[in-house]
Amino acid sequence: MTRIPELSVRPLAGLPMFAPEMSIAQEICNLVGAQGDALRDDDICVIAQKIVSKTEGRALDLASVTAGGDAVKMAAAARREPAVMQAILDESSEILRATPAAIIARHRTGHVLANAGIDASNIEGGDAGTVLRWPIDPDASARAIRQSLQEIAGVRLAVVIADSMGRAWRVGTVGTAIGCAGLTVVEDRRGKAVDLYGRTLQATMIAVADSIAAMAALAMGEGNEGTPVALVRGGGRWVTDEDSAGAASGLRPIEQDMFR
Q1: Domains annotated on the chain, with CATH
Q2: What is the pTM of this model?
Q3: Is the pLDDT of residue 1 over 60?
């Protein structure tokens, strides 16, 4: 029987409110050091999308958005403000559903989610029309943060950028990896492992990055906890230096989309 190492997750309390051009990596290292600890080899650093977007200047004042004809029509059907609909269109490659219940979009990165990731929660000015968009390239953001963390701390680790997303046929949201660096995104067990009765696995592919993002997001919280970063330890078997396509490599190709 294969032994799985124990996993632990530790949300980091005490980080500052992030603003454009602040260094997430430096703030993490400062805080961990102040707590009498240090980043270690094989740590997995899970970072909330919100603070990445804030440091990259991805806030948007909806008052500055001019809605086009398509946005106006969709907004009327979905009972949304035209500026919000235009912002969603600008972040999307495709609108899959636009109804009063939900706007489901294929983000230009390939992820499918509500409102193309545009959100006003936990954002200064959210009540006055300021929203936050995803990083332009979440995988590139993860790679940059990972490089900075490794240079500052002198260790080998992984970075996951997580956001809360809904799932087809399920109620509620779950933490999901939208950016990833230094981590096996999907572990393909097909033909490489056996079950308890010695049968070779035929279909098992483990969504490692999403599973770690979900665990960390549950510990980090979704409201006013103020813990947008968590350290996951015990997952060294999935930390890697091999090149990968990041979280995007875990997306199902459009031609395999079973809900179209």
Answers
A1: 8-58+134-247 (3.30.1330.100), 60-132 (3.90.1660.10)
A2: 0.93
A3: no
